[in-house]
Specification:
By secondary structure, this protein is α/β, with parallel strands linked by helices. It is built from 3 helices and 7 strands. The strands form 2 sheets. Strands 1-2-4-6-7 form a 5-stranded mixed sheet, covered by helices on one side. Strand 6, helix 3 and strand 7 form a beta-alpha-beta unit. Helix 1 runs parallel beside helix 2. The N and C termini lie far apart (about 30 Å).
């Protein structure tokens, strides 16, 4: 499982460089992302631009990270592909997460 990180003003940009976020990698993804967010913040910008498929395990991993963050920190999603966007809308997670339609690591988000 590949994650790429780039510093942002006030946080970190984390890109998941996998085409699938599913049960096969969800636990490793969650553990690795926990390590990353423990040392950065308050913004974690999770870039899902390479992810074409996400199942409930992948969504659960992202939610688990969100639940462990204190109120002063946040995880936002960017680069969401149409298939992942569909999952987020069907589960109403689009109302829980701030979703940026681009994946600009420089923080120039819409």
């Amino acid at each position: 499982m590949q994650l790429t990180t780039l510093p942002l003003p006030g946080g970190i940009h984390v890109r998941l460089d996998e085409s699938r976020l599913d049960a096969v990698i969800a636990i490793r993804f969650k553990d690795r992302l926990r390590e990353i967010v423990a040392h950065h913040g308050p913004l974690i910008l999770l870039d899902l631009g390479a992810v074409d498929f996400m199942d409930s395990s992948g969504l659960g991993a992202i939610l688990a990270i969100r639940r462990t963050l204190p109120d002063s920190r946040r995880i936002e999603l960017t680069g969401v592909t149409p298939n992942v966007d569909r999952v987020l809308r069907l589960t109403h997670m689009d109302t829980i997460f701030t979703i940026h339609r681009d994946s600009d690591p420089a923080g120039n988000r819409a």
